[in-house]
Amino acid sequence: MGKMIDRQRFDEWYNEIVELADLCDKRYPIKGMNIWKPYGWKIMQNIDAIIREEMEKTGHNEVYFPLLIPESCFKKEEEHIKGFSEEVYWVTHAGGNELEERFLLRPTSETALYSIFSLWIRSHADLPLKTFQIVNTFRYETKMTKAFIRVREIHFFEAHTCHENFEDAERQIKEDLEIAERFFKKLCLPYVISRRPDWDKFAGAYYSIGIDVLMPSLKTLQVASIHQYKQNFSIPFEIKYEGRDGKHYYCHQTTYGMSERILGAIVGIHGDEKGIKLPSSIAPIKVVIIPIIFKGWEERIMEECRKIKEKIEELGLKCHIDDRDKTPGSKFYDWELKGVPLRVEIGPKDIENGVISIARRDGIKKKMPVNEIEKLKEELQEYDKMLYVEAEKFLKENTHIMKEIEGKEGIVELPWCGKEECGKKMEEELDMKSLGIPLPQKECNEKCAACKEKAASWLRLAKSY
Asked: I want to staple 264 with a disulfide (CB 3.0 to 4.6 A). Which of 149, 236, 256, 279 is the partner?
């Protein structure tokens, strides 16, 4: 197994590895708008395929809305405007003509979708309305940009739902958390769930839930968020339905959002000194075959490689033979860098003994009889399991439950009375950001770490990207 990344140089390693592993090219002449290279884009498409499958399974329908939002739509929800006003890109001209109304590039899609939802929804029979889209969003990110983590053009997944009442919207949020659990397990990513403090909830939300992972730098990265809007958007956007009693009511709404940050999390959490490690669920190539060529054996070895490739593909595993004119060592280096889960080596001795030599990206090596090749699927399952176990161990070891405010790195949980000034005091003293109240909520019989009054809950804090 490759050596873990030293946390002090993690950011430097990350910035290099995203390009070395062929995920993106940062040389596009607009800062924070990177080019997806074929390998990186394929991984992202595989991630999208998993969430699409989850959406279909739970009765969501995919939509695709225009990129431009009229200023009049954007201005309908006051909180929302305040939250995004500094980040939006405005379109003011078409050719040389000044537009009568300014448009903006969507920073998120509430104000685009909801003006239309008011036309789609008429009666209680139209509810619940469950939609999602995978689009690009644009935010003028002023902090230091970082591939997949802080960018100005964002590959974005967003689910938007409308419900008859608050209770049904709450059921949706429960379903979203179940979707997240299945989704992140497939990506071998352990995470924490927190109800964001009111001063850090999404602009326009009644409450927000954040899903965060812990990176090797001991900073957290938000990889998903779920928002309960109540009627905060349906009232200004006139999203109403006729109830069973003939009266008209405003809908209750929720959203669930994720972005390309998920790829950033996978690169960081599973990476090591040799490169990235991809979970088998999203690896564009699951098995790479390296011919170990010896003089006089060339044809026989290549023929065996082709046969083995056929057998592997019959198992439904994407496989590639690396027949480049390079040394086996440099091929090992390239595929470890790219995070391919399984490497199969075939040389004269393997052929004579009726075996293949396998090397997993987590460092496990073994021989496998050719007639037991279906066991490669078990190897991939075991490999994924090890990725998850290692990441979960790291998360647990760096989560600290404490009674007093004291300097710790990673994630800290402190008793909190619930007052904003106490939460802000903890943030200031620890130089951390509040992630919020841990969910599911845990009993807290301690005194607030800031004011020493009775605590109402725990408050989770961390340094964040």
From this structure: 149
